[in-house]
Design a protein that fits this description.
The complex is a heterodimer. By secondary structure, chain A is an alpha/beta fold. Chain A has 9 helices and 10 strands. The chains are: A alpha/beta, B mainly alpha.
Chain lengths: ~260, ~375
């Protein structure tokens, strides 16, 4: 595995300004347990970056640090040009986040949820109106706009949550297993939305367990036991591991894991 | 400020959409205020008395009649022996057994004294001690009205022994009715519940659902989030307080003697303090169950230490000190003073300072302990 541990970042060092995310020797330790162990990678602007790993590999912890929800123990990281130790609030202005847990309010309507999240990101009232009308018609939710979000099927909720996460037009959006429990057709539509967001210049940082989704990413990294053990384009990784699919690449890497998943 | 407006709008929408909570917030206080004062009454009535009359004389009959007509006692039975009387206590049929020994009348007339025995079921301590005390005073009264104590044997009146009779009058609560003491207290407890419980549960619920994480990842400021949570429940609290005052007037005819303005000023500051407590609890608790437990812990202390049931003056020194450290103590005291006595701001200024200190300390701790980044 030694040779896999020098990810392609080394050759691509450039000024941090152009990078959406720069992460250097980032570590998060809970007592003796290193949830995130010395990871380094960077993400280009407008890139769709897949963050893979088994359950308990440390993906969510790493993501929470990058979103300014959690302090790292050591190492450095810059998100949208801001430091994760001191400038969390500036980071928060520039990112969108969709957590594993569904994070819209079930007892608010579709429009009320959009209005609330738009509003707290500082989008102006009139602008919220036009954008949310556009959003509702793009999603085909005209009839449901005034329904409570709790009444929508999961797939629609997830699409809505994603749209709300990028409603304020952030530079980077973090998606933590956005398509968990969603049917294949909706998953496909979801990825169409991700592509559209990326085409609009939003950097997408996404974790997933679905290897077909990994194929959609520009580049992916695979975390095993808190470390990033592989990072490249899906095509290069398959070549490197002499595998036909991302599934095989993942098995090859995850087999070495010592931690048990959650 | 605009951001705060969006937060408030969202909170109010959620409050008004949750019909159960809404009902609990407005109907429950009304009903409780109507029902609780009737139950929370420390006047002892309906003490069940069994008497064992071994004398069967006219004096013993007189005594029993006097007890029965006092209004506090129910004559529950007339067992044949003291043993049977004790059995009635054991079964819970009687609270007191009065034993009138044989020769009661004779000894009273001839020797001028007679002992009678009184046995009390002390499980309900208040009922037992007050019931016992009432009965003793009935006996004393009976004693002083006995012919033997007034008339000399030859029928002429003697100068009666000097007796001091006390004419008492109760100030501020002329009929010394318990409800006047309890109702303002219950009003305070209701506000305490709204302030302490509902904010804590509300925020912890957002933690459980995961929406708080979504909030923490936005550039929203701490004070915006906290004010967004405090203001709606502060308003709800003030409305509940108003409903409470109305119920108090309509049902009990109690209208505050003092200034309404001062009363509202206190309610306003008190609610801020209690909301701060709720907020502080929510920063520690991860689940609603935990929040409930912590809040309940404080509520029990507040209820028992605040002078709500029992006067703080009769507590041991350490307990009195402790009770000064609960905001409820000061607010209950003030509400009673303003409502019943008509005290003005000058009389209760110290209490206002206490409450302001609580408001700052609790909210300060909550803000300090609330972390957007962990």
């Amino acid at each position: 595995m030694e040779d896999n541990q020098s990810p392609s970042t080394v050759g691509r060092q450039s000024s941090t300004k152009e990078k959406a995310i720069v992460c250097k020797n980032l570590t998060k330790q809970f007592g003796d347990f290193k949830a995130v162990n010395n990871i380094s990678f960077d993400v280009d602007q407008g890139e769709i970056f897949g963050f893979l790993g088994a359950n308990g590999a440390g993906k969510t912890t790493a993501m929470r640090i990058l979103c300014g929800l959690s302090y790292p123990t050591s190492g450095e990281a810059m998100v949208a040009g801001f430091d994760v130790y001191r400038q969390q609030e500036k980071i928060k202005k520039n990112i969108g986040y969709m957590s594993q847990k569904f994070s819209l309010y079930d007892n608010l309507t579709v429009l009320e949820n959009i209005e609330f999240y738009g509003g707290i990101y500082g989008v102006q009232g009139a602008e919220i109106k036009t954008r949310s009308n556009d959003l509702v018609s793009t999603l085909g939710l005209e009839k449901e706009a005034k329904k409570l979000v709790g009444e929508l099927p999961l797939g629609w909720k997830q699409k809505l949550a994603f749209s709300v996460a990028i409603f304020h037009r952030p530079k980077i959006v973090f998606l933590d297993e956005p398509t968990g429990g969603v049917d294949p057709v909706t998953r496909r539509q979801f990825w169409d939305m991700i592509y559209e967001a990326a085409a609009n210049g939003i950097t997408v940082f996404v974790t997933t367990h679905y290897m077909d989704e990994a194929e959609y990413c520009n580049r992916i990294s695979v975390m095993v036991d808190g470390c990033v053990n592989a990072m490249d384009t899906p095509a290069n990784l398959k070549k490197q591991f002499n595998a036909h699919s991302m599934d095989e690449v993942f098995y090859e890497l995850a087999r070495s894991a010592k931690r048990t998943g959650d | 400020m605009k951001i705060l407006r969006f937060i408030l709008q969202k909170e109010f929408r959620q409050i008004f959409r949750d019909k159960t909570i809404l009902a609990m917030m407005f109907i429950a206080p009304t009903i409780q205020l109507i029902i609780l004062p009737l139950a929370a009454n420390f006047e002892v009535k309906n003490v069940n008395v069994a008497y064992v009359d071994l004398d069967h004389s006219s004096y013993s009959q007189k005594l029993v009649n006097k007890i029965a007509s006092s209004g506090y006692f129910h004559i529950k039975g007339n067992p044949a022996s003291y043993k049977e009387g004790l059995k009635m206590i054991a079964h819970g049929d009687a609270d007191l057994v009065l034993e009138i020994p044989p020769g009661f009348e004779r000894n009273l007339v001839r020797e001028g004294s007679q002992k009678i025995s009184l046995s009390v079921d002390a499980i309900n301590g208040t009922k037992a001690s007050l019931g016992g005390a009432y009965l003793v005073s009935v006996l004393a009264d009976f004693n002083s009205s006995l012919d033997v104590n007034i008339k000399l044997p030859n029928g002429t009146s003697a100068a009666p022994a000097a007796k001091i009779s006390i004419a008492g009058s109760n100030w501020y609560n002329p009929r010394a009715e318990y409800k006047y003491y309890m109702v303002p207290g219950i009003l305070v407890l209701l506000l305490t519940m709204i302030g302490g419980f509902i904010t804590a549960l509300n925020i912890v619920k957002e933690k459980e659902i995961g929406t708080i994480e979504q909030i923490n990842v936005t550039p929203i400021r701490k004070w915006q989030f906290i004010l967004g949570k405090l203001i709606p429940f502060w308003i709800v609290g003030m409305i509940v307080f108003t409903i409470g005052l109305t119920v108090m007037y309509l049902v009990y005819g109690i209208f505050p003697k003092g200034s309404l303005l001062v009363l509202y000023l206190f309610a306003a500051v008190y609610l801020v303090a209690l909301l701060g407590l709720g907020l502080l609890i929510s920063t520690f608790a991860e689940t609603q169950l935990q929040a409930m437990f912590i809040a309940y812990f404080f509520m029990m202390i507040f209820m028992l230490m605040s002078g709500f049931f029992t006067s703080t003056d009769s507590m041991p020194g350490w307990a009195r000190t402790l009770s000064n450290f609960t905001p409820v103590t000061h607010f209950i005291k003030v509400v009673r003073l303003i409502v019943l006595k008509g005290s003005g701001l000058r009389d209760v200024g110290t209490e206002l300072l206490y409450l302001i200190a609580f408001a700052f300390a609790l909210n300060g701790a909550a803000v300090w302990n609330y972390r957007k980044t962990k």
